[in-house]
Amino acid sequence: MSLKITVIGTGYLGATHAAAMAELGFEVLGLDVAPEKIEMLSRGQVPMYEPGLEELLRAHVAGIEGSSGRLRFTMDWAEAAEFGDVHFLCVNTPQKHGEYACDMSYVNSAVDSLSKHLRRPALVVGKSTVPVGSAARLAGRIAELAPAGGDVELAWNPEFLREGFAVQDTLHPDRIVVGVRGERAEKLLRQVYAGPVAEGSPFIVTDFPTAELVKTAANSFLATKISFINAMAEVCEAAGGDVAGLAEAIGHDERIGRKFLRAGIGFGGGCLPKDIRAFMARAGELGADQALTFLREIDSINMRRRGLMVEMAREGVGGSFLGKRVAVLGAAFKPDSDDVRDSPALNVAGQIHLQGGQVTVYDPKGMPNAKQVFPTLGYADSALEAVRGADVVLHLTEWREFREIDPARLASVAAHRLVLDGRNALDPARWRAAGWTYRAMGRPTA
Ligand code: UDX
Questions:
Q1: Residue 81 belongs to a domain with what CATH number?
Q2: Does 37 count as an annotated binding residue?
Q3: What are phi and psi of 169, to 5 degrees?
Q4: Where does substrate bind (predicted)?
Q5: Is 271 considered catalytic here?
Q6: Could you tell me which of 220, 248, 377, 436 has the fewest CB atoms within 10 Å of its CB?
Q7: Assign residue 262 a region: left if phi > 0, alpha if psi is -120 to 50, beta otherwise?
Q8: Ligand 1 lined by 264 (C-beta under 6 Å)
Q9: Where among 272, 299, 326 does a domain terminate?
């Protein structure tokens, strides 16, 4: 008999996971406490921009013409508890306001709400990014609350999906990590992931703390790689070197690898910044804070990048932003996403605005979210409109649209032809050929 799966929390991670589970052939029930999310998803609409997700959802949501009908949504905990053999916890764990630690309240309340109704054997699988030690604590909580007692088990199965590639990363994960305490949990998860495993995804079985740590360790490593290359960019600038050439040259060493070595204004988003901070906070609680003091440096190198970009722009317009028009290309924290959480691009735009610059932002998908966070910035409907009359153009999120744009067309409307590439992603030769002064972080000015 095929397993029935619930997905608790239908945000970014949950909506993708629910649709992917339906794609793998399971009957899926998604649960959320937000009625507007449930209404949208039930109509086959996705509350965020993510390539391919809406199509995948519409292929499975019950009631949509031509769909498999395997995916439904509810707000009813008892219904979810009764329905599922496997319950995936996909609620978010944001950074606590004014603290490094993450906020576990959504996870805790989801576990409590579900557990009370668990009257039959089931496996609860945590996917949220949590401080190490949470799984053991939550297992105790479930045992206390679930009417089915020991017939309900917990497993931890961290999620590594990247925004912009969420569907691909969920259906074809580069590894599946499960932290379990018993064979039954492992067996069930092997059933759930039989499809991706058959296609070659490694299936790694470990204990609770290791599974929890894999996620935070992976994100810390990625953050470290980015801050490392950004530190090299600072040195290159001081020494007259070229960080792009340096990254390419060191990246050919397979032990280092070429990915995540793009210098620029640094990392942002809902994961890397808050995950490294929560990791430091948890290590402190465990008495292991010394082991992670380097992450404080990774964080501060990263935050410094934003200020350096602002300085570079200020210098570019003659030392003061007053009376200057600044075009900002990009608002999302990365391309192919409309997510502006802790976005370096918006942060830079906001700082320049505060220093008196007249900022006009354009982003292919991130504008509605950006307007909510920074309503006082100027916004344009296209790159061309943003650049019209600009004294300087800042390229801060590396959308394909910006790489493919015709620099000559932009040159015809800009007040000054100065472009600062905060992502090292534009082709300097193309821009220079169109009459622009092109500058990038950590690269010599030609
Ligand atoms: C990250 C992890 O990659 C993913 O595995 C985890 O599940 C969630 O966190 P995501 O936040 O979607 O995913 O973005 P990612 O692609 O990792 O990029 C993070 C930030 O780093 C972006 O702001 C990006 O612009 C920046 N970045 C990335 C760089 O500045 N340089 C690089 O070379 C790569």
A1: 3.40.50.720
A2: yes
A3: -65, -30
A4: 160-163, 215, 260-264, 268, 334
A5: yes
A6: 248
A7: beta
A8: yes
A9: 299
**Residue 96 maps to a domain:** yes
Is the beta carbon of 161 within 6 A of some atom in ligand 1? yes
Q: Which residue is catalytic, options 90, 102, 236, 271? A: 271
pLDDT grade for 177, boundaries at 50, 70 and 90: very high
Contact 73, 41 (CB under 8 A): yes
- Cα 333 from chain centroid (whole Å): 8
Same domain, 258 and 167: no
Q: Which domain holds residue 369?
A: 306-440
Ligand 1: distance of its center to the CA of 37 in Å?
A: 25
ipTM for the complex shown? 0.97
Average pLDDT over residues 33-40: 97
Question: At 445, is the pLDDT very low, low, confident or very high (cuts 50, 70, 90)?
Answer: confident
Quick check: CB of 272 below 6 Å from ligand 1? yes
Q: Rounded to an integer, what distance in angstroms lies between the CA atom of residue 410 and that of residue 389? A: 10
* Helices 293-316 and 208-239: angle between axes, nearest 10 degrees: 40
282 is in an annotated binding site: no
Choose the residue to mutate in 157, 168, 212, 271 for probing ligand 1, maximizing ligand atoms within 8 Å of C-beta. Answer: 271
Question: Count of CB atoms within 10 A of residue 193's CB?
Answer: 17
Please state, for a pLDDT cut of 90, what percent of the chain lies above it.
99
Q: How do residues 2-23 score in pLDDT, each as one tens digit? A: 899 999 999 999 999 999 999 9
Q: What is the pLDDT of residues 370-429, one digit of tens each?
A: 999 999 999 999 999 999 999 999 999 999 999 999 999 999 999 999 999 999 999 999
Q: Is the pLDDT of residue 1 over 90?
A: no
Closest residue by CA, ligand 1 atom 17: 162
- 293 annotated to a ligand binding site: no
State whether residue 124 is helix, strand or coil: strand
Domain boundary among 152, 178, 206: 206
> Structurally, how many domains does the chain consist of?
3
Residues 27 and 127 in one domain: yes
- Within-domain flag for 424: yes
Q: Would the CB of 192 count as within 6 Å of ligand 1? A: no
- Measure 334 CA to ligand 1 centroid, in angstroms: 7
What residues have CB less than 8 Å from 434, skipping those under 6 apart?
Answer: 406, 407, 408, 410, 411, 417
Task: Identify whether 169 is part of a domain.
Answer: yes
Q: Which is the closest atom of ligand 1 to the Cα of 398? A: 25
